[in-house]
């Protein structure tokens, strides 16, 4: 029984079904991919495995304090979980820990992209989610930042991640829609192997395939708590339109994003996960020639832009606050300003649709994948901003663990 029907939950259901399990999925929404997966940046960004926690992060965060458009904004509250998370974040900024985390994420990301390509072929959904295999172009507006680009290329090359350094002219050759932006560019890094696509549409297309294979989706069903007896999970207490119920299975996988920590806490299962709120805007393309075909990442402002069919998705920022999903107009205005300044005429601003979602983030950026302490209880969550990127690799590895096999990727899995 998979708890959660976002991109992680649905891919987990796919690989468990392939492994021979009978599978059911529970979600409080009425369809798959309606929360964190709904309107994320759309990037499958294997070329950006570096976590938020790195040696430069503390000073950068201090520099951003007080700025309404700061890519990372901290809003401390009287919440022990938040302070514990921030303490862990600072610890993960140590150089050796950051290098270790980057290596683990890079290894999983490369594996995940391979799995994604296999999955969409096997499921027959390649044309269902505005997939685009045109790479990602990382843009640098500061000379000093671009000077470190070759170091990043060298660090990621051993993992099989290809990056090409580009001057401003080469950036425009790669993506002609950047022509008006060229005078401001210090340079770019182009990752030709990266992809983009709509995670929500992918989740729904895959859920439809799974439904046809006999996987049961319990939509509109809110999980109240996990029932345990003698160190073993014995059921999931839920609430739905028909009332209360207890659903039972032989194994339970928590794929509830930022809400998994709250569900597991009464059991004494501790997950160091806290929500980092991200924002996005989606607008129809107004001028095809001005809208990029290649997915973009503004490394200075941590904003990403992906072409999803005849729509443009601009997303970014991280807010360490709480679980509220209210939308800060200043955040949306900053993204709209980026779109109209960097890609003038590309979108119809008056038709912009804003969105905010909660990224389930661990201090070091490593997702929690594997077996928890209670018998029959497993976990696949905490992917932060890389849920779309890491979903297929994480799910395939978890299915192998649950089957009793060694995963095909080297990663610090949870072992109970």
Globally, the shape reads globular
Main beta-sheet strand count, sense and barrel state: 9 strands, mixed
Distance between the termini: 18 Å
Compute the number of helices.
11
Structural notes for this entry:
- The protein has 416 residues and is of the alpha/beta class.
- It has one domain (2-415): FAD/NAD(P)-binding domain.
- Helix content is 32%, strand content 25%.
- It has helices at 7-18, 57-64, 80-92, 95-123, 143-147, 149-156, 168-174, 199-212, 260-264, 329-342, 387-403, and strands at residues 2-3, 24-26, 43-44, 72-74, 136-140, 164-166, 187-191, 195-196, 216-218, 222-229, 232-240, 243-247, 252-254, 274-284, 295-298, 303-308, 311-320, 353-361, 368-371, 377-381, 414-415.
- The strands form 4 sheets. Strands 4, 5, 6, 7, 14, 15, 16, 17 and 18 form a 9-stranded mixed β-sheet that branches.
- The radius of gyration is 21 Å and the shape is globular.
Q: Which terms summarize this structure?
A:
416 residues, globular, seven-stranded mixed sheet, alpha/beta, nine-stranded mixed sheet, 11 helices, FAD/NAD(P)-binding domain
